[in-house]
Amino acid sequence: MKSLALTLAFVTNPALADELIPLNTFPYQAGTNESDASYYLNLGGVSHHFRNDAIHNDLNYGLGIEYRVSDAFGITGGVYHNSLYRNSFYGLVRYQPVNLGPIRSGVVAGTVNGYNSHGFIPYVMPAISADVKAMTVSLIGVPSIGRVDGVISLQFSWRITP
After folding, report:
1. Do residues 43 and 61 touch, judged by C-beta distance below 8 A?
2. How many domains does the chain have?
3. Residue 140: pLDDT above 90?
4. Can you give the pLDDT at residue 94?
5. Which residues fall within 8 angstroms of residue 55, CB to CB, at 6 or more apart?
6. Gap between the Cα atoms of 51 and 146, Å rounded
7. Long-range contacts formed by 122-128: CB under 8 A, 24+ apart
8. What is the 8-class DSSP label of residue 143?
9. Which residues does 114 contact at the CB level (< 8 Å), separation at least 6?
């Protein structure tokens, strides 16, 4: 819960995030001036599981807010209806330092709940994103490992500030 509270504090107070995480901290960062910073509204997405897809919820609607310090770095928090038909709260950091035009790749990491009885668990997934005007489409995924059913997810967000 502390991780989610800290992430939401960063999202709602960008000056705190800028103070604790200087813009020049990350190599290969595209755009590092304050005019690149913006807010995005995350509305969830759709998913497909590699095993047992019939028992999973593939429509993962939600609501979240992301503060993007730059094209390469963002902090996000919110809630969505997960693949187990439960609500999940999340707090994540997005780091996508590799750019090829409007397409970025990297990793999304943080914490999420709603998948087991242990509360918040670590969350790390590779991510590829593409900007199409004011919309960002992100593809994230993880392979099936042991009892974990691998998933690929398409997520959508809209820029709400210039």
Report:
1. yes
2. 1
3. yes
4. 96
5. none
6. 11
7. 123/90, 123/92, 127/94, 127/96, 128/103, 128/104
8. -
9. 82, 84, 86, 87, 88, 89
Handedness of CA 63, 7, 142, 25 (dihedral sign): positive
Whether 15 shows a pLDDT value over 90: the answer reads no
Q: What is the DSSP string of 15-49?
A: HHHHHHS-GGGSTT-S--SGGG-EEEEEEEEEEEE
Quick count: other Cβ atoms within 10 Å of Cβ 150? 13
Percent residues over pLDDT 90 in the chain: 60
Structural domain including 76 reads 2-159
C-alpha separations of 61 from 26, 38, 39, 46, 75 in Å = 31, 22, 19, 8, 19
Q: How many residues does the chain have?
A: 162
Residue range 52-107, pLDDT digits in tens: 778 899 999 999 999 999 989 999 999 999 999 999 999 999 999 999 989 999 99
**Which pTM does this prediction carry?**
0.75
Which CATH number covers residue 11? 2.40.160.20
Model confidence band, residue 11 (pLDDT cutoffs 50, 70, 90): very low
